[in-house]
Amino acid sequence: MSDTSKTVKPDPALENQTAAAPADDPTAAPVDVIDPRLLVREQGLKGYFSEFKRKVKGGELGSLPVFVGLIVIWTIFQTQNSRFLSADNLSNISYFLSATGMLAIGLVFVLLLGEIDLSVGSLSGLASALFAVFVVNHGVNAWLALIVTIVIGALIGALQGWFFARIGVPAFVVTLAGFLGWNGLMLWLLGSNGTINVPDAGPSHLLSQNSFFLDQAVIGAYLLAGLGVLSMLVGSLMDQRRRRAAGVPFRPTSEIALRVGALAVAAFVSAYVLNQASGVTNSLVIFLAALVIVDFVLRRTTYGRKVFAVGGGIEAARRAGINVPMVRITVFAISGGFAAVGGMFFAGQTQTATLNAGGGNTLMLAIAAAVIGGTSLFGGRGNVWSALLGMLVIQSIQTGLDLLNMNTSIQYMITGAVLLGAVVIDSVSRKSQKAAGRA
Q1: Which domain holds residue 385?
Q2: According to the per-residue pLDDT averaged within each range, which of 4-13, 205-214, 342-351, 422-431 is highest?
Q3: What span, in angstroms and rounded, lies between the C-alpha atoms of 383 and 194?
């Protein structure tokens, strides 16, 4: 039975909201049931601590395991090599996580449905090849080629989604076929040379490691931090005002101030550290902007609620009037579009389109990032910020092991162990939620 169905003793400060009735009076109106989760904020810090314990006991761990994992990983590598937390190394981590992170953003949508897309790695490689062919072989404007490439990626994803949603072919099989087919098409486009050098101009230069936000490293980093803090402050106050007007629980101003203050500290400290190296790269800025936009779509729009609804239960979503096939097709289109964007990031990092683009362990790392960051493999639970958190974990492991001159095989084994741990935590969390009646 859910804890929301239990009759609880109301907080004395809120007794006027609940009409008490004698237990031995059969004609009396029933006592209003008050969810204790609606009262915790009236109890100050004690209430927040009680809410935290309730969530942990109920399996609602959120991003807590990821943050704990990051602290452990950074502590271990820093003790082994003092350069790990240096400005230059942290700048490298922040730059190289963005390409695979873009793939992970698209995969979050697919995982929210409880499905998988195995084609994103090959599709990202195909996108880099298409861009190079358009620009180098056919002289197409670089920005136009970028747009066309992303559109093609989205259409390919929609096609795979159509086979899954309309024909009924399992997503695993459809995208596995795409994994092979799009990789073959990429090889054909690159020809016998297997490599096309991309000019360091336009999108390629924008996404290179030598291109920084506003081309003014110090100003750009702090401006970006300020914009992030201001956006959170305005959004939180607007949400508070809207919920207050609707008569539903809202965050008190003190909590908003605490959250915004914590973000401000994190943002400006990060800006300061990155400025000790070279500043904030454009690729990281674009990646963060994509996270903010997609997070808004998932949490604040009707479409986002439909995605969560389909992932939570297909039959219930159908009965609610949701066009399930259309949601599925669009989700795979989004995944394909972000795979193409990730391919452009890879091309910007290397200034080439090669046979290795999107290959190797790219696919596995993108899936691992989304899952390690907190998106459930079982669907219906997660958020796009898991792409950032998961990539921070994976890129930190890779960079730390590189500093220690560890073999690549060790990297794979450790990353695999972390992925298994994330899935185990997710499975245990779901069981705890079911036991508490909240799954």
Answers
A1: 64-211+281-435
A2: 342-351
A3: 37
